[in-house]
Write a structure and sequence with these properties.
The complex is a heterodimer. Chain A contains eight helices and two strands. By secondary structure, chain A is an all-alpha fold. In chain A, a hairpin with a 5-residue loop joins strand 1 and strand 2. In chain A, helix 2 (31-47) packs across helix 4 (71-126) and helix 3 (51-66) crosses helix 4 (71-126). Chain A is extended. The two termini of chain A are 47 Å apart. Chain B has helices at 6-29, 36-50, 56-71, 80-97, 105-117, 119-130, 134-157, 159-168. Chain B is mostly helical. Chain B contains eight helices and no strands. The chains are: A mainly alpha, B mainly alpha. At the A-B interface, helix 4, helix 5, helix 6 and helix 8 of A face helix 1, helix 3, helix 6, helix 7 and helix 8 of B.
């Protein structure tokens, strides 16, 4: 996965919705508080109907986002998908009602969708995975939490395995690689070459990890 | 979920892990709308094929959603869990009607299309809450999900040969 970089201007470069390290007040806020704020802002977005309410809410959301020191570039990365959605919705309204009657409802709905998701974006951008996990651990069953953290731990392992399997198959002359990926004729072969060894590896790793966890007393009741 | 052995549950967790890896890899290279459905449907049905029990695909979907939320992937913030959970539920429901779901091309294609079309549901729920009109909601959902359905069907069609090979080698059982 691509890691973010911080430029000299203080902007973070990375994928949309990905965590950006920082020391803003929003970063320091507890995960629980951020969830409460996100729910409150999203609920307000659903309730807002008048232009002044939407503008006020947009201003609040922008202040909230920018006070997390995420920068305008990240804001653009996060909202561009919603801008496309806004354009589609606006066009649908204009086709149905015409410019005079369709413009405001189309714009309002587009803004409402944007404002519904923006607080959640700030939560993802400013909350580290470890802190989210800490909050999740308190509310999740033990087994689900174990599965989640084990799979998270194995993400880099399987990413490496996939690369190694692809390399080994390429050495054997299998049609694996970017230049074959564009041709649907090779998709079936590519899948068989990559997925069968990968699944065999996953099944073996699952057996080993399960044995290891059971040997360490996972899910065993404490002795009286 | 209790009925899964730890080994089965971990195998499903790894399927969720693969969904996240492919999502991360392909979002760096491709910008085709809906392409993520290819691997999502593939691993959801494959998970169900490897562990043919009720709840298998749902668990894969739930874990993939939680992983994506933790890693900050996908649009819509924490709502992304729904995008994986609902297709997982659909795969499991289809499994009730067809025992050898993961080994049949026709069943996989139907489930792949239905699962991918469940992206409709998230859009419909959000826009219905906001108060959009039904015909506009449906048109928007159709435009946003059409590519996803095509990729979902393609991805699910890749499952039967792999499940058949894994079964033939005795690595998984279809009972």
């Amino acid at each position: 996965m691509k890691k973010w970089k911080r430029s000299e201007k203080g902007d973070f470069k990375g994928n949309a919705f990905q965590y950006c390290a920082g020391n803003s007040p929003i970063h320091r806020l507890g995960a629980g508080w951020k969830i409460i704020l996100a729910v409150a802002f999203s609920a307000a977005a659903i309730a807002a109907r008048d232009p002044w309410m939407l503008l006020g809410l947009l201003a609040i959301n922008l202040v909230y986002y920018l006070s997390a020191q995420l920068g305008l570039m990240n804001l653009w990365r996060d909202i561009r998908f919603f801008l496309v959605q806004m354009a589609i919705i606006l066009v649908l309204y204009l086709i149905k009602y015409g410019i005079a009657e369709g413009l405001w409802p189309g714009l309002r709905t587009g803004f409402q969708i944007l404002l519904l998701f923006l607080p959640g974006t700030v939560f993802l951008r400013t909350t580290q995975g470890a802190r989210m996990m800490g909050s999740l651990k308190k509310i999740m069953p033990e087994r689900l939490s174990f599965l989640l953290f084990t799979s998270l731990r194995f993400v880099p392992f399987f990413a490496r395995e996939t690369r190694e399997i692809a390399m080994a198959q390429q050495l054997r002359g299998a049609p694996v690689g970017i230049r074959y990926a564009w041709n649907p004729v090779y998709w079936r072969d590519q899948f068989q070459c990559l997925m069968i060894p990968l699944m065999v590896r996953a099944l073996k790793t699952a057996r080993c990890a399960a044995l290891s966890a059971e040997a360490r007393g996972f899910e065993q009741r404490p002795r009286p | 979920m209790k009925k899964f052995t730890l080994q089965e549950a971990l195998c499903l967790a790894f399927c969720a892990c693969f969904i996240v890896i492919t999502r991360a890899v392909f979002r760096l290279h491709l910008n085709i709308p809906g392409h993520a459905m290819f691997f999502t449907m593939f691993f959801l049905i494959l998970g169900r094929g490897c562990v043919p029990r009720m709840g298998a695909a749902t668990l894969v979907g739930l874990l993939a959603g939680l992983l994506c939320t933790l890693l900050g992937m996908g649009k819509g913030g924490p709502l992304i869990i729904l995008k994986f959970l609902v297709p997982g539920l659909i795969v499991d429901l289809a499994g009730l009607f067809s025992n050898g779901l993961a080994g049949s091309y026709v069943a996989c294609a139907i489930v792949g299309a239905l699962g991918a079309a469940s992206r409709f549901l998230t859009i419909i729920v959000v826009e219905w809450i906001i108060g959009m009109e039904w015909d506009l909601i449906l048109q928007h959902a159709l435009i946003s999900s059409a590519c996803g359905v095509v990729f979902g069907v393609l991805g699910s069609l890749m499952v039967p040969p792999i499940v058949r090979k894994l079964t033939a080698h005795g690595l998984i059982s279809q009972n």
